[in-house]
């Protein structure tokens, strides 16, 4: 390189694309955005149902797997992470969800920084939001504009389909005491309703479209490298201490080493798996692990790769009668052709579907002070993700514990950056999580037993009505549960006195100048809902600090 960069952003995913947009807005700053994957020019990225062809596809997915999980009775889970421009926003479920206000108030307490409180992060959410209800502000509900944004890049729209079985499930949830809601994102997401999604006119709206095109691509101070995997950070010991001065990147041309101008910064936005992996490869992490692999310990940071949290969903399946679900609608060539035609003509129907359409937030028991469960309800069923739909009509009511107490790890197993790290979520490893699993399955049965669903004669297929005790239900949860792809917490932020905190409240890596982390890995506790939009908010907060 003939000259250095002011900012090097590692990962052109959810956070990286927004950061590139905000930081390159200053024409005096040279910005380099690095993406290990390729361009987002695969057609299935942009058709909403195309996640089926992106997850598990090395063109768009890192194709990670977990280690064998004791809480899942020895099973390993597929662990998708986006490896393409737009990152996970190119392959995820497209659900727009902020979490609960208490999540961010807790972050403020854990970090000692009130800028993470709900009323402060709300401004960051609103800055990049473009909500469909505010297309005509006159028709928006009273006070809606105080909670949502209309001029940002991140489009939020209604889903373009409904299903009678989902409407009936929502009515049954009402009968079971879960109120209806039209907005999951006002601070408390309790209630049942159709999810809103990050789509635009029936197409997936990923962060590459939102934040890179056309703005960044027209800026002479901005560079994007795809097919560029960071091997490690370049660290320098000088009179001021340990400093990050650039990165080593494996590209099709070989190893390249873009460097930082004086005062520049590297921002890791490689996600809850990629960011701790890169830190550990660079000698920043648990000393014992690094020494075991023959790596020089640049800084002993025991929290790097620790504190892994994820949402584990328990997939209860119910056969139904007297209605059509996607199982039979898509079972014939004619049915598939009609689905394709509807999407081609109207950008609606099953091809416009997010993986989950109906959502519900509620409490696993009456003594809970806040909703601790989230339902993703779908008009379909299958044995496991990627397998064929069942031959009978059915719906799936997947339920997850929003606030798991189980904690896992992400640890490299080799000094080679191309070797996948060991991912050990430790699902259902605490008594509290196993208890919530059993309670959530009982609550699902309670909802399905309500009069609103009676005409469809629901019959429990999984886990099966013969299982009744807490011990049986927790064990069966281990058989049928799977991740909903929300890893977080592996480079958590925290107070100076917290030995496991990797970054401070402004996302600076402890003991290393010129280096920050901005993605879901910095969450000290996982948000109470889907994690993509909170990750965008984190990037927006950091961009505000860096450009102030």
Automatic annotation (TrEMBL):
<feature type="domain" description="Glucose-methanol-choline oxidoreductase N-terminal">
    <location>
        <begin position="271"/>
        <end position="285"/>
    </location>
</feature>
<dbReference type="GO" id="GO:0016614">
    <property type="term" value="F:oxidoreductase activity, acting on CH-OH group of donors"/>
</dbReference>
<feature type="binding site">
    <location>
        <position position="84"/>
    </location>
    <ligand>
        <name>FAD</name>
    </ligand>
</feature>
<dbReference type="Pfam" id="PF00732">
    <property type="entry name" value="GMC_oxred_N"/>
</dbReference>
<dbReference type="InterPro" id="IPR007867">
    <property type="entry name" value="GMC_OxRtase_C"/>
</dbReference>
<keyword id="KW-0274">FAD</keyword>
<dbReference type="InterPro" id="IPR012132">
    <property type="entry name" value="GMC_OxRdtase"/>
</dbReference>
<dbReference type="GO" id="GO:0050660">
    <property type="term" value="F:flavin adenine dinucleotide binding"/>
</dbReference>
<keyword id="KW-0285">Flavoprotein</keyword>
<dbReference type="InterPro" id="IPR000172">
    <property type="entry name" value="GMC_OxRdtase_N"/>
</dbReference>
<feature type="binding site">
    <location>
        <position position="230"/>
    </location>
    <ligand>
        <name>FAD</name>
    </ligand>
</feature>
<dbReference type="Pfam" id="PF05199">
    <property type="entry name" value="GMC_oxred_C"/>
</dbReference>
<comment type="similarity">
    <text>Belongs to the GMC oxidoreductase family.</text>
</comment>
<dbReference type="InterPro" id="IPR036188">
    <property type="entry name" value="FAD/NAD-bd_sf"/>
</dbReference>
<protein>
    <submittedName>
        <fullName>Choline dehydrogenase</fullName>
    </submittedName>
</protein>
């Amino acid at each position: 390189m003939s000259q250095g960069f002011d900012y090097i952003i590692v990962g052109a995913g959810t956070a990286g694309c927004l950061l590139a947009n905000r930081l390159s807005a200053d024409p005096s700053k040279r910005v380099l955005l690095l993406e290990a994957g390729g361009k987002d020019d695969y057609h299935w990225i942009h058709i909403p149902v195309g996640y089926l062809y992106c997850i598990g596809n090395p063109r768009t997915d890192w194709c990670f797997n977990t280690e064998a999980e004791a809480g899942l009775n020895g099973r390993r889970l597929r662990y998708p992470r986006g490896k393409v421009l737009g990152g996970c926003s190119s392959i995820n479920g497209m659900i727009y969800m902020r979490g609960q206000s208490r999540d961010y108030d807790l972050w403020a307490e854990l970090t000692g920084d009130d800028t993470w409180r709900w009323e402060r992060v709300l401004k960051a959410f609103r800055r990049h939001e473009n909500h469909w209800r505010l297309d005509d502000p006159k028709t928006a509900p009273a006070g809606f504009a105080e909670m949502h944004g209309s001029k940002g890049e991140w489009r939020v729209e209604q889903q373009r389909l409904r299903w009678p079985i989902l409407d009936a499930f929502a009515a049954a949830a009402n009968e079971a005491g879960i109120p209806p809601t039209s907005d999951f994102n006002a601070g408390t997401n309790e209630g049942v309703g159709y999810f809103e999604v990050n789509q635009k006119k029936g197409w997936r709206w990923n962060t590459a479209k939102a934040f890179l095109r056309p703005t960044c691509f027209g800026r002479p101070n901005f560079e994007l490298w795809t097919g560029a995997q960071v091997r490690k950070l370049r660290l320098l010991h000088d009179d001021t201490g340990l400093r990050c001065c650039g990165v080593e990147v494996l590209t099709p041309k070989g190893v390249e080493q873009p460097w930082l101008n004086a005062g520049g910064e590297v921002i890791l936005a490689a996600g809850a798996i990629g960011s701790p992996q890169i830190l550990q490869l660079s000698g920043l992490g648990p000393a014992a692990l690094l020494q075991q692999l023959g790596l020089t310990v640049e800084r002993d940071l025991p929290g790097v790769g620790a504190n892994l949290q994820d949402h584990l969903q328990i997939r209860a399946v119910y056969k139904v009668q007297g209605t059509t679900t996607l199982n039979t609608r898509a079972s014939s060539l004619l049915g598939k052709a009609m689905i394709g035609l509807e999407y081609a003509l109207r950008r609606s129907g099953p091809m416009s579907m997010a993986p989950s359409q109906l959502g519900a937030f509620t409490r696993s028991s009456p003594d809970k002070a806040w909703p601790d469960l989230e339902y993703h309800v779908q008009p379909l069923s299958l044995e496991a993700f990627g397998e064929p739909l069942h031959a009978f009509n059915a719906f799936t009511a997947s339920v997850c514990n929003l606030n798991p107490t189980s904690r896992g790890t992400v640890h490299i197993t080799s000094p080679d950056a191309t070797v996948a790290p060991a991912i050990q979520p430790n699902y259902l490893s605490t008594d509290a999580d196993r208890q919530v699993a059993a309670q959530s399955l009982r609550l699902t049965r309670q909802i399905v037993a309500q009069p609103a669903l009676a005409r469809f004669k629901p019959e429990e297929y999984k886990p099966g009505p013969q299982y009744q005790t807490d011990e049986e239900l927790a064990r069966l949860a281990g058989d049928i549960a799977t991740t909903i792809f929300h890893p977080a917490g592996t480079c958590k932020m925290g107070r100076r006195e917290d030995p496991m905190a990797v970054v401070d409240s402004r996302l600076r890596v402890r003991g290393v100048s010129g280096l920050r982390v901005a993605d879901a890995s910095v969450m000290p506790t996982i948000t109470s809902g889907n994690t993509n939009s909170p990750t965008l908010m984190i990037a927006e907060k950091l961009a505000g600090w860096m450009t102030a």
